[in-house]
Model the fold of this input.
Amino acid sequence: MADERPEFFESGHRACGGCGPALAGRLIMKAAGENTIVVASTGCMEVFSTPYPETAWKTPWIHSLFQNAAAVASGIESSIKMQGRDEKVVVIAGDGATFDIGVLCISGAFERGHDITYICYDNEAYMNTGIQRSGATPYDASTTTSPAGKNSTGNSRPKKDMPAILAAHGAPYVATASIAYPTDMMKKVEKAINTKGPCYLQVHAPCCTGWGFDGAKTMEIGKAAINSGLWVNFEMEEGTVTKVKKVKRVPVDDYLKSQKRFRHLFKPEPKTEEIAKIQAIADKNAEKYGTDIVPKN
Amino acid sequence: MLQIMEGSHAVAEAVKLSRPQVVSAYPITPQTHIVERLAEIVADGELDADYICVESEFSALSSCLGASAAGSRVYSATTSQGLAFMAEVVFNVAGMRLPIVMTIANRSLGAPLSIWNDQQDSLFLRDSGWMQLYAEDAQEAMDLHFIAYKAAENHEVLLPAFVCFDGFILTHTFEPVDIPKQEEIDAYLPAFNPYQRLDAKDPISFGMYATPDYYQEFRYEINAAMTRAKKVLREAGAEFGEMFGRDYSGLVEEYRLDDADTAIVAMGSVCGTIKDAVDEMRDDGKKVGLLKLRSFRPFPYEDVRTALAGVSNVAVLEKNINIGSRMLGAVGLEVKDAVYKNGTPVYSYVGGLGGRDIRRKDVKMITEWAETGRNDCFFGLREEVL
Done:
């Protein structure tokens, strides 16, 4: 990596080859630096990085439970403030911990205005427990609890809009990023950490095992998600979208075809109605955020 | 100098004097007066603490966990449903060996919903790895907080502690209390000296997962620490007695037990009623006494065995029910184990659940039941509504 800053998330952990979240962890810590206290939720990253007595974390790190990372972070921030210390408190949690089981604690921490950065590595399902759907799972993705079948085309609900929920709490900085664009992602990590108050960053972190693609293609898949319009990289400051990654959008088909979780949409024959619904989600994203590069006349 | 004060406010004063840096709590009856008074104390600048108004009990203890791990002395208070809601964190705090002190304003657990007192809430977390101390009155509730912090933070222990006192009966009643001076408490309870803490200058990982190769040893060590806590609590109680004139060196307290044939065993505020009943029964020539348990975790087996060595019958007054067990109450099980080798009969008599009054005549009745060998049962049951 051209970025010469030191690593605080060490290699040698137990993630799958090509793991998006592992890369997210490395990039977050490179950007966050040594004066950081990491609060983890239960999940893939916690498990693959800290089997006692080994740890991949070179800064202080704490894990308590699945759903309470934001509350634990609140207490740490409160404590170090009272002690006159200046470490930055950064939560790193998966999408299940963030979108579903941890919402209460996150909402409380954001409403109270703690000076913390909450980063969700979003791999769009409960991967640690074996690929079950979460509130972050995209429409029609087949997971072990939303399997495609005779009467099912996969996950029946669209992805929850977590950034909007956190922005509605008055968070000064809310952003999305992708491990496929490391420089952009690290800038956003730094910005979130250096913005006073509770900030939220949602990082798209493709999971080769859960999504069903070759681990050598993690970056490619991440980029394809953005080019399809199914993932949008943006920044919101004080509730207003201030920056959006513009793309020359392509139809969602290629992105869907690249992953086993959407294979049922194409085999045995293409389910055109369903694909059209997913295309409509991408179109709506593009319209909402203005992602499309408009050709010059 | 004695001051007349509500029990909850006495506890708030004890917390103030213990100088926690972080207080995090969620309101629930009958704990509210403690946390309201503490909020005033912080707002008035009498305590330099960050008071986190959390959105749930689950976050109350979770934020305390974080603050304790970061190196602060912390405080919370709850009861009943709130304690049940935070149960997952309760186990976690003990597993991470964080010496948090939390007041439990003892209350029954629903359903049916009841805001009134019994001791089911703290007792259901018997195996969580928290020390459990029970107070008889406001003064003891106050004093046990200092002792709890001192024992919990001792590096031989490093376990959290509940200080339990009965909801409404103690939280909402006024009693005379002696409030120690700040400099005296500072001398008794020095600033928190964490064994480990989250610190960027000396990074460590907290709360890692353990494979079958390691997990069991963590549990073993928690239990070993709880066993060591008996000595540490006794010493902390004795030291408190030397400094403040109120001796808590015993994990149990005997009342007219010396020549007793029948012993009543109980915890908490009901011990006051029992003492009165014992006096009256003694006046009637009955040889009866009280063994009050101040510590339920660690359970002081040796002390209980010694104290009950000479008695013929033991009636355990239980403000909890051990549903599905032959022994009806959680306390009776422990007492029975403690005196097992003596062969003394031990009976659990369950009553006072959901705030039902326990009167002197109830105490006299269960004493007779024990004397006549009546098996475990409820007392004060309203047969007509069954």
Summary: The domain at 2-244 of chain B is CATH 3.40.50.970 (Rossmann fold). Chain B has a mean pLDDT of 98. The radius of gyration of chain B is 20 Å. Chain B has two domains: 2-244, 252-385.
